């Protein structure tokens, strides 16, 4: 049985399973990150699957939805998170962190709701109990102190929850990315895409060699048909086909990608994108640097 998701508090830890139908209200980014991390530790193959887990999940008949998200394990409590867009955005600034949040939303483990007005304190409330969470400075990590025991807290926010707009994570989960490329091209391409999205440091949205470009580059290194590659990127939730038409043009202009016609017995020829020497030569671990150097040049 996986461990219960719990967050560190002064004097120990606070299990989220101790709250029936839990609601987290107005968490600061460190607290929200701690809750995401608690779920990741409890169910890493759901929240942050590695390549081996993605291969195994590919045959999981329990998966559902076009995103390929696995159903929520029954041991994990479903939590409603009512937070400001700034709080959500601050913990989803890099691809890997955002993909974890997306995985939890896809799996219906997190119900992400937009908080319009900040609250005096962060709250964690269930049907039978509720408390204020006050940040305290720990020796190593930011921790929190549980204050109070109020069973009416959740009821006070029912109207706010009912009227809150959903928060949409624009970054797809790793599971969705892998499933989209595996479906269109097979395991080898899907694995390379996921690995190229896993740089050592976080992959921020501001990186000029961002997730969309990296995914398209992998397809070019495998000699993918352009239309199928753009559809895979769209299925993965990385962007629209027109976005990847612009990316293809940028890569062609930089001398990184070439195109070739592929005749078909019936219908118009298809176009294949092929990696040019600066892109085809380096190992996968060096591809992003090679692309960056060519684009900067």
TrEMBL record:
Lineage top rank: taxon: Archaea
Protein name listed in UniProt: DUF5821 family protein
Region Disordered, annotated ranges: 58-78
Domain (Transcriptional regulator TbsP-like C-terminal) ranges: 174-276
Start and end residues of each Transcriptional regulator TbsP N-terminal domain: 75-172
Natural source organism: Halorubrum rubrum
């Amino acid at each position: 049985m996986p461990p219960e998701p719990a967050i560190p508090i002064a004097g120990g830890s606070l299990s989220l399973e101790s709250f029936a139908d839990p609601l987290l209200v107005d968490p600061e980014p460190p607290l929200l990150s701690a809750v995401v991390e608690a779920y990741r530790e409890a169910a890493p193959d759901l929240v942050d699957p590695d390549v081996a887990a993605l291969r195994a999940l590919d045959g999981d008949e329990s998966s559902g939805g076009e995103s390929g998200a696995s159903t929520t394990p029954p041991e994990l409590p479903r939590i409603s998170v009512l937070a400001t867009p700034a709080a959500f955005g601050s913990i989803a600034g890099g691809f890997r962190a955002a993909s974890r949040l997306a995985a939890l939303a896809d799996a219906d483990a997190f119900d992400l709701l937009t908080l319009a007005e900040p609250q005096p304190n962060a709250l964690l409330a269930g049907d039978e109990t509720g408390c204020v969470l006050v940040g305290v400075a720990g020796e190593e990590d930011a921790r929190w102190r549980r204050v109070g025991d109020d069973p009416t807290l959740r009821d006070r926010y029912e109207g706010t929850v009912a009227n809150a707009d959903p928060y949409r994570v624009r970054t797809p989960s790793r599971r969705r990315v892998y499933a989209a490329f595996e479906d269109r091209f097979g395991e080898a391409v899907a694995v390379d895409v996921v690995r190229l999205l896993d740089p050592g440091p976080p992959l921020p949205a501001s990186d000029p060699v961002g997730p969309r470009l990296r995914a398209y580059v992998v397809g070019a290194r495998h000699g993918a048909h352009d239309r199928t590659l753009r559809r895979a990127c769209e299925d993965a939730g990385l962007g629209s086909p027109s976005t990847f038409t612009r990316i293809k043009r940028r890569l062609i202009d930089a001398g990184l990608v070439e195109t070739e016609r592929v005749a078909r017995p019936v219908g118009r020829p298809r176009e294949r994108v092929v990696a040019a020497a600066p892109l085809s030569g380096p190992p996968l671990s060096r591809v992003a640097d090679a692309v960056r150097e060519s684009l900067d040049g």
